[in-house]
Amino acid sequence: MPMEGPTSHIYFSQRLRLHYVDWGNESAPPMLLIHGGRDHCRNWDWVAEALRDDYHIIAPDLRGHGDSQWLLGGSYNQIDYIYDITQLLHQRQHTPVTIIGHSLGGSISLGYSGLYPETVTKLVSIEGMGPPPSMVDGLVNQPTEQRLHNWIGDLRKVAGRIPRRYPSLEEAYERMQTENPHLTEDQARHLTIHGSNQNEDGTYSWKFDNYVRASPPIGLAPEEIFKLYARITCPTLLFRGTESWASDPEKDGRAEHFQNVQIANIENAGHWVHHDQLDEFLTIVRAFLKE
């Protein structure tokens, strides 16, 4: 018998209508799954199905992603994402919570856990620390006017960018498969179906807002982010795919800012570790959660 899927729900944050799915099992300990940039909440379906018997899992679509409302304006800022997650957990009374986040979602998870360490039981971040420190230093050390000029230029490019329209769902699927060759056919089709909308003319486009591509010119400096890492009190597990662009947080020194941290470098995996090596990911996560 097929496993029953999640139910869809709406909540509001900063006047935005935001979407999340709930996998049920309300008497179990709370778990929150946060997707990455240009992704959507249903990318967690395989992880949620594996863990739903032990946890009450909810997974939001971040603002500008999936079935959540797009921002009116030009800047998607990480601080606002953190606020949205804070509101969801507050409104649902879904704490103390175990959090698993990927990429942008991993970064949001780390930021939230540093702000509210008393509400987080366990934390798993999949490549959620951003670009390697050497790349970050280059961006941070740019003159302020250069950063702002780059931002304005990026917004103008995005404003003129028309969302790509695929003639068929099959062609959108082929694009998904090309983007991550580690995906199985079933994975790629599932992510494409849940990550796209059909336009009025019958074509298909991805659900995310193109404006999420533009990085805001302001935000927390690395030293401020490291101070938040240091405030995280719960056991923390940092994943990295060895085929990814992300650097090893142990070798680059960023792991030193955590009170209680473990590192898992996964072979034959890129940025989407939880897709590329699902079984190994789940084995490591289950062992971590039982500790």
Question: Concise description?
Answer:
The chain is of the alpha/beta class and 291 residues long. Helices cover 37% and strands 19% of the residues.
Description:
The protein contains ten helices and ten strands. By secondary structure, the chain is an alpha/beta fold. It has a single domain, classed as Alpha/Beta hydrolase fold, catalytic domain (Rossmann fold, 3-Layer(aba) Sandwich), CATH 3.40.50. Strands 1-2-4-3-5-6-9-10 form an eight-stranded mixed sheet, with helices on both faces. α2 packs across α3, α3 packs across α8 and α6 crosses α7. The longest helix is centred in the middle third of the chain and has 16 residues. The protein is globular, with a radius of gyration of 19 Å. The mean pLDDT is 95.
Write the layout of secondary structure elements.
Blueprint: E1 7-13, E2 16-22, E3 30-34, H1 45-51, E4 56-60, H2 78-92, E5 97-102, H3 104-115, E6 120-126, H4 133-140, H5 144-159, H6 169-179, H7 185-195, E7 196-198, E8 204-206, H8 222-231, E9 236-241, E10 261-266, H9 273-276, H10 278-290
Parallel strand pairs: 3-4, 3-5, 5-6, 6-9, 9-10
Antiparallel strand pairs: 1-2, 2-4, 7-8
Helix pairs in contact: 2-3, 3-8, 6-7
